[in-house]
């Protein structure tokens, strides 16, 4: 009988100890959960602050026109432009009225000109402009182009999408594109392998012009002919890229 009482006592003590252990574990888990909840809440607050800070970047005065930042890896759009399906791509950031980026003057830009679809429908000169400087700068509108030895500045293509007031910010290595559309509809045509190009500002004034040579897809100088021609706005994607 004594043995029975001892066993009962031992079992009771063990049960009590187990209850205390479970209570302690539960308390620890609750505390950990509380800490985890606090940590997640703090992370959300930090993310919110970071988001606010990002939204403030690039803000400031301006004309209200959107500015697009083009990187050396392509571009993408957000905001109202993305909603309209324009300026699609990847790696591009849209800012508004940036005050810490200057206009590209031309001497920091390197150009290349590809003569596409010679003597075919859709013939054009693809102009690629790249920021070769170590600082960002912006371009706007469309390039001022005079073909060959003529004196007429090409007009903006009537079929081009609107967006001449948009500032496109070129980060170092960033690229933008324009196209000179060539039309031949009579015997009275011109021919050349060069043209002059200058950048415009938002008032339409142009900077210094540079002479550009045209090349075919193999890198060989290529002459082009035309009766009439026009030019498209600068864009972060290649026009007629097919």
From TrEMBL:
<feature type="signal peptide">
    <location>
        <begin position="1"/>
        <end position="26"/>
    </location>
</feature>
<dbReference type="InterPro" id="IPR025326">
    <property type="entry name" value="DUF4232"/>
</dbReference>
<feature type="domain" description="DUF4232">
    <location>
        <begin position="104"/>
        <end position="234"/>
    </location>
</feature>
<feature type="compositionally biased region" description="Low complexity">
    <location>
        <begin position="64"/>
        <end position="91"/>
    </location>
</feature>
<keyword id="KW-0732">Signal</keyword>
<feature type="region of interest" description="Disordered">
    <location>
        <begin position="28"/>
        <end position="93"/>
    </location>
</feature>
<protein>
    <submittedName>
        <fullName>DUF4232 domain-containing protein</fullName>
    </submittedName>
</protein>
<feature type="compositionally biased region" description="Low complexity">
    <location>
        <begin position="28"/>
        <end position="39"/>
    </location>
</feature>
<dbReference type="Pfam" id="PF14016">
    <property type="entry name" value="DUF4232"/>
</dbReference>
<feature type="compositionally biased region" description="Basic and acidic residues">
    <location>
        <begin position="46"/>
        <end position="55"/>
    </location>
</feature>
